[in-house]
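User: I've been trying to design a sequence by hand for this structure and keep getting stuck. Would you show me what you'd pick, starting by listing the structure so we're on the same page?

Assistant: Good idea, let's start from the same input. This is the structure you sent:
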């Protein structure tokens, strides 16, 4: 029998039903599979990549309708647990907001019956624990958060109050980051009748990261295809003791291949992370600049006057300021570096060169930058830098230099000597 599938969101795949957050909801318990897509909430409430609201949420007319649907969704999710429904959530961290009509506070995940804490952090490395979901993570370019540990069943919150005591809740990691922090989780449920042992129910709640908040159709299609592959019984423990001819040798070969793939995967991730030089900002841009400079042979030291850093090579040093923006670098930006240089001289007692690494117009394609008024460093900034003995290096040019070094077209020493002795705009 084929699954009946419901999507709560905007995308309606062939053969599935769909209802909107701000519309009339269908009864979740009528379906075998429910996919809950939260990308619409993030977009309509203007939640940025740091999971903070960037606009007045109260002025959005759909808000009251959405909030009135929250209790119904929560109630139906809990009912679905008891009837073997598979629930897949394109999940996002909780963001506190305020309602328009009475300015009461609410949270973006008030519809969800499990209390989860997350840490906002980005990264690209993923370790897949449950191979069933391998296809889903193939095209995940970046995760944006990870879940903090659940140390007891009491922490799963509302679920424990609404489900009978005969229901046991368990959770497992589906995928983790490099440090083993979960970025995807699954909750499963077991039922106990009288004094008998707990028996596993077929229901599950799976939390998956969104791969593209602007278009989740691919995510949903992959989830639906996964539901077709997971309609099978879980193997009992004793099956692992039954061996098929050639099983051991094939397993050994598979393990060897997987180890090689892990090594290659890490090498690949360490390589493509440098593309972040082309579009990142804030501390993420600073971190990738630091690691790239290290790979190019520089020594990185802490600054005594700012949260930036000092780059050193062969006795030459520069105090670095890193800035990523959706427009050009301005006088306030370079002014911060000039101030830091002055404070450094006062504290250390000797002069130091300044190096400003800027990622101007970071969201534009590279070919559209440095044209007309879209320059990373406008003329007035170049003049200031030259008068203050400051080097200006775009993070795009740092990326180009990295590529040239590792293709044999530029030496590490020539690169480092150039950035530590040049003033004004630096190119390679």
């Amino acid at each position: 029998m084929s699954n009946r599938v419901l999507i709560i969101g905007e995308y309606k795949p062939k053969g599935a039903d769909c209802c909107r957050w701000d519309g009339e909801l269908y009864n979740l318990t009528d379906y075998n599979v429910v996919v809950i897509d939260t990308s619409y909430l993030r977009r309509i409430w203007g939640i940025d990549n740091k999971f903070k609201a960037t606009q007045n949420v109260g002025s959005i007319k759909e808000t009251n309708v959405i909030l009135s649907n929250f209790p119904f969704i929560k109630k139906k999710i809990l009912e679905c647990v008891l009837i073997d429904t598979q629930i897949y959530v394109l999940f996002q961290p909780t963001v506190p907001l305020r309602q328009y009509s009475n300015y009461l506070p609410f949270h973006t995940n008030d519809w969800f019956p499990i209390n989860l804490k997350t840490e906002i952090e980005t990264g690209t490395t993923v370790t897949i624990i449950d191979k069933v979901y391998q296809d889903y993570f193939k095209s995940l370019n970046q995760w944006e958060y990870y879940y903090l540990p659940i140390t007891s069943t009491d922490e799963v919150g509302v679920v424990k109050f609404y489900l009978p005591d005969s229901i046991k809740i368990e959770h497992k990691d589906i995928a983790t980051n490099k440090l083993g922090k979960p970025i995807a989780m699954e909750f499963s449920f077991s039922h106990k009748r009288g004094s008998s042992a707990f028996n596993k129910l077929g229901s599950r709640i799976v939390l998956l990261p969104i791969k593209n908040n602007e278009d989740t159709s691919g995510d949903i299609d992959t989830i639906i295809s996964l539901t077709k592959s997971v309609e099978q019984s879980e193997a009992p423990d004793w099956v692992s003791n039954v061996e098929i001819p050639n099983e051991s040798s094939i397993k050994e070969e598979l393990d060897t291949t997987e180890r090689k793939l892990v090594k290659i995967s890490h090498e690949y991730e360490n390589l493509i992370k440098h593309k972040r030089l082309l579009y990142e900002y804030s501390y993420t841009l600073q971190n990738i600049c630091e690691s790239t400079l290290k790979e190019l042979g520089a020594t990185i030291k802490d600054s005594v006057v700012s949260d930036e850093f000092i780059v050193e090579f062969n006795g030459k040093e520069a105090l670095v300021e890193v800035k990523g923006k959706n427009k050009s670098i301005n006088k306030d930006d370079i002014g911060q570096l000039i101030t830091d240089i002055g404070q450094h001289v006062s504290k250390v007692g000797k002069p130091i060169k300044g190096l400003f690494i800027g990622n101007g117009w970071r969201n534009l394609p590279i070919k559209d930058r440095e044209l007309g008024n879209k320059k990373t460093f406008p003329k007035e900034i170049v003049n200031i830098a030259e008068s203050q003995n400051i080097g200006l290096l775009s993070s795009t040019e740092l990326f180009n230099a990295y590529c040239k070094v590792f293709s044999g077209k530029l030496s590490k020493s020539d690169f480092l000597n150039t950035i530590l002795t040049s003033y004004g705009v630096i190119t390679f």
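That's my pick for every position. To get oriented when you compare it with your attempt: DSSP finds eleven helices and 18 strands in the chain. The chain has two domains: 5-234, 276-425.
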